[in-house]
Structures
1.
Amino acid sequence: MNPSPNLEDPRWQRLEKVRGYMQVDPANRHLRDEEIDLLLDLRELDAARIKLDLALQAEPGEPSLLFRLATLAMIKREFADAEKLLTGLIAAGVREPGVAYNLAYCQFVQRRFADTRQTLTSYPEARQVPAAIPLEGRCLHHMGELPAAQELLHAHLAQYPEDVDALGLAALVCVDQNQFKEARELATAALRRDPNRIEALIAIGTVDLNEENFEAAAAAYQQVLSINARDGRSWLGMGIIMLLSQRLPDATECLRRATEAMPEHSGTWVTLGWCLVMQNHLEEAEAAYRHAVEASRAFSEAHGGLAVVAALKGDKEVAKRSMEIARRLDPGSMSAAYADALLSGNAKDAQGLSKLATDLLQSKGMLDPQNPSGRRLIQQLTLLGKR
């Protein structure tokens, strides 16, 4: 049930005027369309649908009405229905920027990133919508084409340096390429214009996490979660902070929330697996690593994690097979090295396991803030946007 109208809202005031004019001129299409647009803007969706149905009875197939019907479906998050209506309009020869852009957006929300790019490139009128370039950049980002996304966004920002949407996304793309200095600059510029820009907050939180400034990183992630409680990257970031602070039950909860939001992200499952191994919850850890393998069979640390669990269970043959796969994918697999040390008897109790893990991480330079190789522990655990 919609709340009572706020009669001080100019939109409601305008709606009352339009309805008054329509009593004098009920056949005026412009007034009819304005009434529907106001109802959509005010989220009076049932009233808007009634008006649209009546209008379409009078003008079946009218493109402007079908576009508004698609808009109604989008507001209700019925993106497949909206896509059908918008595809029909394009097939009928409608070449309006909003039609093509909204079609691309519907495809994006359904995670059909290649289709989204195809729509944006096939119908150039879509690019007249200011949000089109950031939308294409998000597609490239999700598809793992980070240099292409960066090139597209930098070219756009050279022409539109105040585009806060592009600034925030560009910061995130830089983070996912370990370009932390530029990421901070872009994120800071975005947050000056919009303090609640989610992608900029995630970017600056990740930069702070990488620099081991946990308090600042947590503040950024918590701000994101106050805006969107299902943001997977922020739950992952919080989980890593808790993990590195040895708050393992809290880390487990955060990481589980992250996997709920990003079930396709192998790095999140691997991080959860490490957290569970550290608590000796081996069955749950194995399940997490298997999810990681399902999400990305080419990710060495997922197979290495299974090797660790098998080694801890004493199943040497399974451990060796998983180690072989992990090292075939990445000869420097941290998890495979950990499993190897377990099999060789270098760690036989909880204290030994902890010392072994620390020794392995330090030997790889992962705890050294000045290490230029990009393989420190935090970077290894986050794996944001890469798996």
2.
Amino acid sequence: MSLSLLTPRLVSTRQLVAIRAASGHVLKADQTLSINEKGFFKYERDVSRDKRYSNPQKLGDTPARFLFRKLGHAYEIYPLFVLTGVWAVLFCYVVYYSFEKTEIWLDRSSTVAPWDWERIRNNYWKKPTLVFDPEGVTHKRLEIMETLQDEMMAAAKQRGTR
């Protein structure tokens, strides 16, 4: 449906009469601004980011000044800064911990994937698996699994699929 068909339905006739009457109305009063006060306008250059001036103190012109300019008396936002700092530290830890896992393949210089048995055989038990593992249950070598994986690798090479 086009706009020309919608417009008569959206605007009532009373609104159309009011709009047309207002558009033709001419104001009789003076529409200029008159100032009775004496003085002058002082135009200055904004030097807040000009490197030629040393630390021009303009409040809120940079993100750091905007965030930290009222810390001396705005004690109610201290918990927000603490929570933001804790969140940032935890976020960095989780990102670091996630990239230490085997499943993420960042170094593509090797044609063998990081989860391939030939590449991970000597350090699979050292990789992080759980965030909280105080007994180190997930960081033990499994000899039975190693022999099984070695046999499977030998069989795959014998078949020619490796």
3.
Amino acid sequence: MSTQIVRTIPILLSIARIHEGGNAGNGRYFFTFDPHPVQTGDTAAILDFQLSKETPKDLVIESLISSDALQQLGEPLIDADRRRVQVENRNTAPYLMQLALVVRDNLTGEVIVCDPQVVNTPPHVRAELAAQSQESRPSIRS
């Protein structure tokens, strides 16, 4: 990617094995992202997804998949220990990205799909929204 990266956004993924009622892996796993949602802010950035220290060591990142039709993301880079993946985000288009971190449980062989919400709101969109909020707009009638 040719966009100059200005900052890194750390994103912590915590996953726990549970007996039932989870949000992934047929209810046997529960995951959360921090922050949630991920808001990219005003610049291009590296999204730095890491498994938390509390996440069992036999859970590893297998891949990061996206339906990025607007060419916002670079190629994901997964660390050798498979507990971290980084991807460049150009942040040039307003976009709610569909991402999936695919995690494998090496103890059970199960695959868990964890889907963070990543919202791009580039500077030009923020400026337009600010200008619109200062204009008088008709109100919704009840």
4.
Amino acid sequence: MKQLLRGTYIGISVFENLKEHLKSKELKEVFAQILDNFKTHERALAALVIAQHEEVPRDLGMQGKLSQLMQAIKSMTLTSDKEILSEALKALKMADDELKEFTERHYTLREDVEKTVRIMQDDYAGSYHTLHKFSIEFR
């Protein structure tokens, strides 16, 4: 659970960084909505960690910090909204893959955990679909 929460922290960091480089006001609004979803996921995952009587991690961890640094460097080279969309789509795909791996590693999930994971998967799919439509427009 803590790993999913740290992954969510990474997602928030990535999308905040990418949003700063966007030129399109409409895309900035879409990214803001995606960030709202991530923050909702963060709160839900934190509540699940607390329910397990564990301490909620408040940072990205070493791997997350390294990932954040690499993303910050990479985003400096992005020059167009099309390139930013491409990076955002990759990030959402990676997040969805992490959720799939989590569910494969944990064959039986508590009902509240399974519900949260499904909501996250649906949100990722919806965000991916929305951003993919924008990327088609930019072709």
